[in-house]
Amino acid sequence: MPITTTSPPILTHSVTNLRVVLRRLWKATQTRSLLKTWNGPELTRFNRDFLTLAHRHQEPRAYGNDGDAWTTWLVLGGRGAGKTRLGAEWVRALAMGRPPYTEARAHHIALIGETEHDVREVMIDGPAGLIHTSPTSERPQYTSSRKRLEWSNGTIAYAFSAEDPDQLRGPQFDAAWCDELAKWRDPDAVFDMLQFGLRLGQRPRQLVTTTPRPIALIKRLIDDPRTAVTHASTHANRAHLASAFFDAVIGRYEGTQLGRQEIDGEVVEERTDGLWTRATIERARVAEAPPLRRVVVGVDPPASAREGADICGIVAAGIAENDIVYVLADESEGRLSPAAWANKAIALYRRLEADAIIAEVNMGGDMVAQVFRQIDYTVPVRQVRATRAKFTRAEPVATLYTQGRVRHVGAPMRALEDQMCDFGLDGLSDGHSPDRLDALVWAVTALTSRRSQGPRITFL
User: Fold this and answer.
1) CA nearest to 112, candidates 163, 73, 75, 61
2) DSSP codes, 384-431
3) Alpha helices in 325-406, H assignment, sequence order
């Protein structure tokens, strides 16, 4: 049906009216016809109005799970789904007191990211961050020495790193934006401290934008009656993402367990036949390792270095006097030539002052040891050959975790830990080789072989 494009009220009223009109035009041809009638000011207002262009998952939510006003808006989204842009626009709306995201201006806002670098480079100064998404007339001033953003109307946003929960003791806020909460090292401690500080204004609240992981805090927030939950897929924002990204990345992981989490924004529960659970790994986490009596670097070489080939698993671990094993580092990487992955393993060996490299030779045979010798013949390389299935070889190592005899040192080794929790009777859910896990199994088995059943190690 043809539309009327000459009605003065449409062009002279607020941008809210423009938004309403556009959303009534369900045909693209109708939308284009109307846009052609607008002059410069109307187009400028339209282009700056986030809600006119927003995806459904970026639109404000009115109610939580219990049907009342929410205190936590949890946005679970895939990579590139527009989570950061939503966070920045939500904070900007609160800072300016702009409906429909808020009815009153917030005066003190907390910005919390995984690290100080993430807050500054993603939430504040990133392409979808607060500074770049604000029109010049509303752009806040960032004072790096004080770690805060200040708007001309007096609203202040304070930057915090999730690495230090105690930073949140003392300050108080009207609102908070928590970005990538599922990546935080100790999300419960940081989130708990934040709740004590959300005590200003008539309706303190927080927005959590994150790619999900099945951690306890995410599950708790999903079930909280005061939470509004939004799901966002990477596909929703496809128009703003590189086509090569969809061809190379989305095409590879679509439908896999990792893809459901990283693309579809789903909370993917652990496998029922898995050898490890997230809870087991979280219990094993420590800040640092004690003096170690022996350190090794486990290496699971790939069959080739071509595009799409398996990753070279490179994992270091050590054992203390009390026979507790400490997993120290995951330096695994893909598409490396034999010389490159050997150099990487040797560099880790030297950095940790390790005692030996434990290298699987099923794929490369004598070539594996030869590559290491060509780079540095003084490095002791112990060649190991797998004679049993991966699941069978991994079971004794998983038992050590269950017994509390393995620790993970420092920040989460997420790629390794994801493989551990996704490894079951039929391998990984996406069908790829558990390269990082294989390297871990070889390293831990080498350190504990006298006290546990595991792969046989042959010294060549």
Assistant:
1) 163
2) E---S-HHHHHHHHHHHHHTT-EEEESS--HHHHHHHHTEETTEETT-
3) 338-351, 366-375, 390-402
Length of the chain: 460
The residues pairing with 298 across neighbouring beta strands, listed in sequence order, are: 315, 358
- Tokens 């030297």 label which residue? 350
Q: Give me the sign of the Cα torsion angle 179, 180, 182, 183.
A: negative
Percent of residues in the chain assigned helix, strand, coil, to nearest 5: 40, 20, 40
First to last CA, the chain: 81
Token pair, residue 53, equals 């262009």
For residues 95 and 91, what is the distance between their CA atoms, to the nearest angstrom?
A: 6
List, for residues 233-247, the tens digit of each pLDDT value.
898 888 888 888 887
DSSP designation for 67:
S
Phi first, then psi, for residue 65 (nearest 5°) are -60, -30
Can you list the domains of the chain with their CATH numbers? Answer: 8-53 (no CATH), 56-262 (3.40.50.300), 278-448 (3.30.420.280)
Residue 142: C-alpha distances to residues 55, 107, 152, 167, 175 (Å): 28, 16, 12, 19, 18
Residues 6 or more apart whose CB falls under 8 angstroms from that of 309 comprise: 302, 303, 334, 335
Q: Which amino acid is present at 154?
A: G
pLDDT digits (tens, 9 = 90+) for 392-411: 999 999 999 999 999 999 98
Tokens of 121: 């480079």
**What secondary structure letter does DSSP report for 139?**
P
The span from the CA of 327 to the CA of 132, in Å, is 41
Retrieve residue 182's tokens. Answer: 């599922």
